[in-house]
Design goal:
Layout lengths: L2 E3 L1 H4 L11 E4 L2 E4 L10 E2 L2 E2 L5 H6 L7 E6 L6
Parallel strand pairs: 1-6
Antiparallel strand pairs: 2-3, 3-6, 4-5
């Protein structure tokens, strides 16, 4: 079963200070902690812990990464 995250939860996984590095693209969450290009939580001006869908459109790299979940939008109250 795939885990569900909010974008607020993903922000904690920025690859800094020993944190795991997660990115979001097209509504899915990927763990890039062990990907050399994402060392220190950054890659081509993008930071882990956020939506990098624009980067994915330019470079379809995600097929090589570990998809660990999906994003849900917070409900409007």
């Amino acid at each position: 079963m795939i885990k569900v995250y909010t974008i607020e939860e993903i922000k904690r996984f920025n690859g800094k200070d020993g944190q795991a590095a997660y990115i979001v693209a097209n509504g899915y969450v990927y763990n890039v902690s062990n990907v050399p290009e994402w060392k220190d939580g950054t890659y081509r001006g993008y930071s882990a812990g956020q939506d990098v869908s624009a980067l994915e459109k330019a470079s379809p790299f995600l097929k090589n990464y570990n998809r660990i979940g999906k994003i849900i939008k917070p409900s409007a109250n």
